[in-house]
Amino acid sequence: MCQCRFNHRNRFTKQAVFRCPHCKKTLEKIKERKEYNIYKCKNNACPFYQANLRRMTKKERQQFQQDPQAFKVRYLFREFLFDFLPLASSSLIKPKVDLSRLAASPHVLGLVLTYYVNFGMSSRETAAAMKDIHGVSISHQTVLNYANSVALWIKPFVDRFPYELSGSFCGDETYIRVKGRWHYLFFMFDAVKKIVLSYRVSPNRDTLSAIKAIDDVLRKLASLPDDLSFVVDGNPIYLLAQHFFAQHGISFDVRQVIGLTNEDPVSEEFRPLKQIIERFNRTFKGNYRPTHGFGAEEGSVSFVTLFVAYFNFLRPHSALEGRVPVVIPELADLPHMPARWTKLIAMAQAFLQQEAA
């Protein structure tokens, strides 16, 4: 046991000091943001700073003398203020909802999900269709209860399924209404295989949400390729997410498609991938619009989870010659959609039991 006593007068109470990796001088805090602090190396003899000056053309040097703030030539470091560990393992939590106790047969449950998710009908329209077409009397709240219960079981199956991915990833945000306020839905998408890889609902359009969305994709990769890249819009949160992962030894490129016209080479090259996820957003909005928003965040997550399960495993895609993005033989052999929903729920339950064993 050491003889050091931790009190307010000793050296252990000093704050950590960030130093430039190029010149070892102390970095100076220049900005404070909600999610991070920015530090800058102001040493004029720093090798990083001098190397950037030497790379400038004659015209750039003249511009630099007139407006030095327009150039980023000094070393910058961002200290992120949130606690998040990339690629951290997490244990599965078995839902407390017992689907066998639902007051509905598996076929009725499959019919409800087919109307509510596949056809994008509201809960009231679904209840009316069940009554008028099938003679099953249920309330719209029962439809929502069924959807929320099934989503709790299907979500781990959707998130941890061993997808075969192409490596062409794109991301975007769209809006959904929760408790009368707009929330942001972060999608990450395999543009070639047409597989939804992340679907985070967040009240804020912030860096942490972008980090979690990208982390969802990284978790699904057996190994990180050297040429890993993400095609996104011009929102700076994705560049900040790239910095965050770089600090944890995870490198990838961010290709930002700016605006609606191709004003730069990157936008011209990668706009087709950006248009793919924009088209996916319109598909989602077509199913979401009849809901008119959600009264709780849990309801929004449940709806998005069921839509992603439907899109990945049940919905035929024209770009895939009428095949579903993820082909599961046990589902393909079934005669109709309610039976496929029932089988998918059974597979999700078996998956959870297998993982818990």
What can you tell me about this protein's structure?
With 357 residues, this protein is an alpha/beta fold. The chain folds into two domains: 18-80, no CATH class; 157-356, Ribonuclease H-like superfamily/Ribonuclease H (Nucleotidyltransferase, domain 5), CATH 3.30.420. Helix content is 43%, strand content 14%. It has eleven helices and eight strands. The protein has helices at 47-55, 58-66, 106-118, 123-134, 140-160, 207-219, 237-247, 265-288, 297-313, 329-332, 337-356, and strands at 28-32, 36-40, 76-80, 169-178, 181-190, 195-202, 229-232, 253-256. The strands form two sheets. It has a five-stranded mixed sheet, sandwiched between helices. It is elongated and about 80 Å long. The mean pLDDT is 90. It holds the Pfam family DDE_Tnp_IS240. InterPro entries: DDE_dom (IPR032874), Integrase_cat-core (IPR001584), RNaseH-like_sf (IPR012337). It comes from Geobacillus kaustophilus GBlys. This is Transposase.
Summarize the structure.
This protein is α/β, with parallel strands linked by helices. Helix content is 43%, strand content 14%. It is elongated, with a radius of gyration of 25 Å.
How much strand? Answer: 5-15%
Largest beta-sheet characterization:
5 strands, mixed
Order of helices and strands: EEHHEHHHEEEHEHEHHHH
Briefly note the structural class of the backbone: alpha/beta
Q: What is the 3D shape?
A: elongated
Can you tell me the number of structural domains?
2
Please compute the radius of gyration using only Cα atoms: 25 Å
Looking at the structure, the CATH topology of the largest domain is Nucleotidyltransferase, domain 5
- The order of strands across the largest sheet is 6-5-4-7-8
* CATH architectural designation of the largest domain: 2-Layer Sandwich
**How many strand units?**
8
Distance between the termini: 42 Å
CATH C-level of the largest domain: Alpha Beta
| Relative helix content | 40-55%
Low-confidence stretches: none
Mean pLDDT: 90
